[in-house]
Structures are given as structure tokens and as C-alpha cells.
Design a protein that fits this description.
Layout: E1 12-16, E2 22-27, E3 42-46, E4 52-58, H1 63-75, E5 80-90, H2 92-103, E6 111-114, H3 118-127, E7 135-137
Parallel strand pairs: 4-5, 5-6, 6-7
Antiparallel strand pairs: 1-2, 2-3, 3-4
Helix pairs in contact: 1-2
């Protein structure tokens, strides 16, 4: 622990794969939720309509990645659509980070979340039962 980090701490890495606008979170030597290697926990893919597709798992192992992605989305000030169809799990903190990102958008702009996973809906409904200005949640799932 010479560098001040616990011996099991591994940094989350983000990378931008260029023109496709794909961000991936990688985490070294940490088991996934299924006990396997969490080599690729989550992807956030820019869609041609200006929206984003979120895939995988957003949890404590990649909150830094999620925060950076949300900052990137919110800093544009446009808002947009986030398709969560392929998101398998999201932590309470990750949902709170999404709510905070939507609050940073200018008046009249919003994030539109489509196809949220059941975990997202349970957390959102428990913590923000009256909804959140700047965040539209579409409650359908294919």
C-alpha cells in the first residue's frame, strides 16, 4: 500500500474507440457478479440518432467510468435518449449519478431513459417517487 491504495484496488479505465463513439469500462482482476472475470463490465455506445445505448453492469467497480460518461453527456447541454435495454444491473449510486447529471442540464433539456432494467425502476421509484425534472423515464421493456 505504498501508493496509498489498498492492495486489491484496480483503476477503472475508460477509452473512446473513436468514430463509433463507444466507451468501455474495464476493470482488472475483479470478479464479475457471476463470479467470472469482469474484463468488460459496461459499454456506452453513441447511436446515430444522438442517443446512447448502455449495456452490461454499472456498479461500484465502474462508477468512475459512469460518472465520466454522464459528465460527457451532460456537458453537451443537449440531453438526449439513453437506451438501457441491455443494462443488466445498476447500483443505487449509479441511478443517483444519472439523476444528478439530468439536474445539470439547462432548463427545457432532459435525459430520456428508455427500457430501464427492473433494478433501475425499483431504485428510481423508491428514491424519487414523484419523478425528477430533467429526467424522463419510459417504463416499457421489451
Amino acid at each position: 500500500m505504498a501508493d496509498g491504495k489498498p492492495p486489491d484496488a484496480h483503476p477503472v479505465q475508460t477509452r473512446d474507440a473513436g468514430p463509433r463513439g463507444r466507451l468501455q469500462a474495464h476493470h482488472s482482476h475483479k470478479p464479475g457478479l457471476d463470479g467470472g472475470d469482469a474484463a468488460s463490465l459496461a459499454d456506452i455506445i453513441a447511436l446515430s440518432d444522438g442517443g446512447w445505448q448502455v449495456c452490461g453492469v454499472i456498479d461500484i467497480r465502474n462508477h468512475d467510468f459512469w460518472a465520466a460518461a454522464l459528465d460527457r453527456i451532460a456537458s453537451g447541454g443537449r440531453g438526449g435518449r439513453m437506451d438501457l435495454t441491455d443494462l443488466r444491473f445498476v447500483s443505487v449510486r449509479a441511478v443517483a449519478m444519472l439523476v444528478a447529471a439530468s439536474a445539470r442540464l439547462p432548463p427545457g433539456r432532459h435525459l430520456h431513459v428508455t427500457n430501464p432494467c427492473p433494478t433501475f425502476l425499483r431504485v428510481f421509484d423508491a428514491c424519487w417517487p414523484n419523478g425528477v425534472p430533467g429526467l424522463l423515464v419510459e417504463r416499457t421493456r421489451p
